[in-house]
Amino acid sequence: MLLYLQLGLTFLRPHSALNGKVPIPINELNKYETMPAKWAKLIELAQIHTIENQKHKSNVLKEAA
Predict the structure, then answer these.
(1) Which residues of 33-52 are buried (b: 16+ CB within 10 A; e: fewer)?
(2) What DSSP letter does each residue of 6-40 carry, written as one string?
């Protein structure tokens, strides 16, 4: 989750050096116009990512046992 929040802090805002574009576009955020909506979606994506990682680690541990 922290990864997405760190990315959001730097990469959600357009930069003048990039002609008003964001440095790394996140396709899932394109349909949201306001910054609060983008942040909410970014947090949701971070939660999904965290849950998927936990499930994967759990499965790896089960297979190793």
Answers:
(1) eeeeebbebbeebbeeeeee
(2) HHHHHHSS-BGGGTTB-SS--GGGTT--SHHHHHH
> What is the Cα–Cα distance from 5 to 45, expressed in whole angstroms?
10
DSSP state of 65: -
Determine the length of the chain. Answer: 65
Please tell me the distance from the alpha carbon of residue 65 to that of residue 59, in angstroms, as a whole number.
Answer: 10
Closest CA to 28 of 54, 48, 56: 48
- Cα–Cα distance, 29 to 31 (Å, whole number): 6
pLDDT tens digits, one per residue of 31-58: 999 988 988 998 898 899 999 999 988 8
Average pLDDT for the chain: 82
